């Protein structure tokens, strides 16, 4: 049973990209609120470090190493969750790939393909594989982390922006399709300027202390998954 200190007790959450940045902060915040968090990412050592922090704080988590660019990884993950938990209450899609910032005329094809694979194709695959578990949970929440460039064109960001625009459309269409089929809710969150490795790559000259820490975004997400909102919801952390 949930209580005031652990409002998400009994909930199962999956956070992609939970080895660092916003994903790691969100995983720890969800665990602190009582959820059992499935940690996914490619860096096993980093995932183990996050799991150690969660357990040290009295929370629970499971490591599930996953490369979102591998076609069979997501179905295997869904099968493992179904076997152990039989449901999924919270899905946070945090992992993303940022290609080198270049003019449209100089986009590197392999990087563009990787961005579309991780940011778009994997998102569709996650939803397809996990939809039955989300429906089984009742009142499930799907949270996708986006960027303002997905809807506001910016010079040199075209490859990433195109992938995020498609990412948002996948989530919006999914929300429209399930609107009358149950209680699953979908939210797209723009974290804004946040102190992450991706931000440091994009803005190498920026002083990181001038932007908010990922924990601020994590708190917004924890509040969001506990709230009631329309099937399609957008917010800025």
What is the fold's blueprint, element by element?
Layout: E1 12-15, H1 21-32, E2 36-39, H2 44-56, E3 60-63, H3 73-84, E4 90-93, H4 109-137, E5 141-145, H5 158-178, E6 185-190, H6 197-202, H7 214-225, E7 232-236
Helix pairs in contact: 1-2, 1-7, 3-4, 4-5
Characteristic terms for this protein:
single chain; 237 residues; alpha/beta; Rossmann fold; 7-stranded parallel beta sheet; 7 helices; 44% helix
Helix content: 40-55%
**Rg (CA only):** 17 Å
Output the CATH topology.
Rossmann fold
Instruction: Determine and state the CATH class.
Output: Alpha Beta
Brief sketch in words of this structure:
The protein is of the alpha/beta class and 237 residues long. The protein has 7 helices and 7 strands; from the N terminus they run βαβαβαβαβαβααβ. The protein has a 7-stranded parallel sheet with strand order 3-2-1-4-5-6-7, sandwiched between helices.
Could you explain the architecture of this structure?
With 237 residues, the protein is α/β, with parallel strands linked by helices. It has a single domain (12-236), classed as NAD(P)-binding Rossmann-like Domain (Rossmann fold), CATH 3.40.50. It has 7 helices and 7 strands, in the order E-H-E-H-E-H-E-H-E-H-E-H-H-E. It has helices spanning 21-32, 44-56, 73-84, 109-137, 158-178, 197-202, 214-225; strands at 12-15, 36-39, 60-63, 90-93, 141-145, 185-190, 232-236. Helix 1 runs parallel beside helix 2. The longest helix has 29 residues, at 109-137. It is globular and about 50 Å long. The two termini are 28 Å apart. The model has no long low-confidence stretch (mean pLDDT 94).
